Amino acid sequence: MGRRTPLYDLHVAAGARMVDFGGWDMPVGYGSQIEEHRAVRRDAGMFDVSHMCVVDLRGAGVRPLLLRLLANDVGRLTAPGKALYSCMLRPDGGVIDDLIACYLDEKWFRVVVNAGTADKDLAWMKEHARQIGVAVVARRDLAIVAVQGPNARAKVMPLLPESARAAAGALGSFFGAVSDDEWFVSRTGYTGEDGFEVALPSEAAAGFWTALQAAGVASCGLGARDTLRLEAGMNLYGNDMDETVTPLESGLAWTVVLEGTRDFIGRAALTKQRDAGVARQLAGLLLEDRGVLRAHQKVFAGAAGEGEVTSGTFSPTLERSIALARLPAAAVGRVEVDIRGKRVPSRIVKPPFARHGKARIDL
Amino acid sequence: MSQTPADLRYTKSHEWLRKLPDGTIEVGITDHAQQSLGDLVFVEVPEPGRHVAAGDACAVVESVKAASDIYSPVAGEVTAGNPKLATEPELVNRDPYGEGWIMRVKPSGGAATETLDAPAYEAVAAAGG
Q1: Tens digits of residue pLDDT in A206-258
Q2: d(CA B49, CA A354)
Q3: Superfamily covering domain A247-359
Q4: Helices marked H in chain B — which ranges?
Q5: A245: closest CA among A210, A280, A206?
Q6: Hey, is A231 helix, strand or coil?
Q7: Chain B neighbors of A290, CB-CB under 8 A
Q8: In chain A, what residues touch B38 (CB-CB under 8 Å)?
């Protein structure tokens, strides 16, 4: 038996299909995955993401700590509440995890990390925080509900406690705010739609979930979350990148700040890789024929060499199959993918595939 | 709960069989199977005229989650693949024992796959088979 979120009983009662995800028993879907996906693209859907871990970093040295630990530059976070997506790297440039860091005040940053990597992330952060006098506290007392879709914010607003409502209503994209009673609302997500991610005290989670349901927000599982994030061109840690690859090989060069002299862990390795020429890319693929691209299928890129699909699915928005694949840097144009023993033509495209309800690539 | 009509035969690999008046066998996947697969997005059916042995993989159903082979439960000649599934794969989800049929095979009398009645199949499905 895996770990359970505070919403576990509600998922089971709703008939969700439960699966193991990073050691947690999580709902993969409640019925039709495609309908859940469309609810988010067209209206509003909610996800229990309480398996993800909120981590508070507190102390006068917190900004210097994150300047060192993260490949993206928290020096850019000057407005309180502003958040940033970043990789946390090993000295050799391998990705320990990807996370969102939110600047709350000069002595307090909050980061949200993946479930499967939380233990090693905490150990890594604590090891570096100790030297600099920063406290690292995993907030397992908080549940997280992501509410996403064009109508998500409007449906969430009236259900927030009075204490959190005004600040939530004023949030710009990629900003977050914490209320006195520990509701942390941020305008972030993993679907390519507008919305909120709400971290809240565990004991308030069931009431919030039920109220959202009554407001017409569709319950969505990890299955729909995966097709939504892939359409939005977002990486999944463990599939699209891990400790064996760098952000530069993972479509995440835009999150790495090498300008200036900031001495972050992994910098030397990334500089060296960049100067030598990055040999691999994480590319988007659009299947030109029928079938479904799936992780681990082999990709043939002609003279450029071979690669592998890292995430693949059927895109409900495009009604075609899409994927992310790690390919030789020289691969361009058309490739072939081995789908169950048949080589099927696919086209290299630039993600995102879809965002804000609309296709973003030509079919 | 999934449906398992009593008038059909079943395989352990989750196909159902219906004997049609002309002696051909209509094959599809069970309600339990379509629920496990989730939303189907592609179905590949065999061409009429194809000769198959019992246990041959001759159709593929792909859902958002997974691809799965469909095996012919009898030896014989394919007389039809369901033409509607090319554009409406969701028929298998909506009506697995009716409009979502996958293929029809005219048996040639060779070896056939072991089949089960509805209660025996339900036991297989309940055991997570």
Answers
A1: 999 999 999 999 999 999 999 999 999 999 999 999 999 999 999 999 999 99
A2: 41
A3: Aminomethyltransferase beta-barrel domains (2.40.30.110)
A4: 31-37, 91-94, 118-126
A5: A280
A6: helix
A7: 42, 44
A8: 29, 32-33, 223
Spatial separation of the C-alpha atoms in residues B102 and B78, rounded to whole Å: 11
Token reading at B57: 């993989």
Residues of chain B whose C-beta is under 8 A from some C-beta in A? 38-39, 41-42, 44, 60, 62, 64-65, 67, 93
Chain A nearest C-alpha distance from B52 (Å): 19
Query: Class for domain A8-50+140-229, per CATH?
Result: alpha beta
Do the chains contact at B44 and A32, CB–CB below 8 Å? no
Beta-ladder partners of A17 = A29
Test B39 with A33 for CB contact under 8 angstroms: yes
CA dist A196 → A33, A176, A232, B88 (Å): 21, 9, 16, 35
Contact B65 A227 (CB under 8 A): no
In terms of CA atoms, which chain B residue is nearest residue A289?
Answer: B42
Q: Do A54-138 and A247-359 have matching folds?
A: no
Q: Please check the confidence at residue B1 and state whether its pLDDT lies above 80.
A: no
What's CA B15's distance to the chain center, in Å? 4
What span, in angstroms and rounded, lies between the C-alpha atoms of A47 and A102?
21
Looking at the complex, does the CB of residue A358 fall below 8 Å from at least one CB of chain B? no
Please state the ipTM of this predicted complex.
0.83
Domain borders along chain A are 8-50+140-229, 54-138, 247-359
B67/A290 touch (CB, cutoff 8 Å), yes or no: no
Partners of B39 on chain A (C-beta within 8 Å) are: 32-34
* CB-CB under 8 Å, B62 with A291: yes
Contact state of A314 with B64 under an 8 Å Cβ cutoff: yes
The answer to whether the beta carbons of residues A74 and A270 sit under 8 Å apart is: no
CB contact under 8 A, A313 and B64: yes
Q: Tell me the two tokens of residue A69.
A: 């630990």
Q: Which domains does chain B have, with CATH numbers?
A: 9-122 (2.40.50.100)
Provide the shortest C-alpha distance from residue B13 to chain A (in Å): 19
Chain B residue numbers with beta carbons less than 8 Å from the beta carbon of A220 are none
> Is A171 in contact with A127 (CB distance < 8 Å)?
no
pLDDT single digits (tens) B30-83: 999 999 999 999 999 999 999 999 999 999 999 998 999 999 999 999 999 999
For A54-138, CATH gives 3.30.70.1400
A165-212 pLDDT per residue, tens = 999 999 999 999 999 999 999 999 999 999 999 999 999 999 999 999
For the entire predicted model, the pTM comes to: 0.94
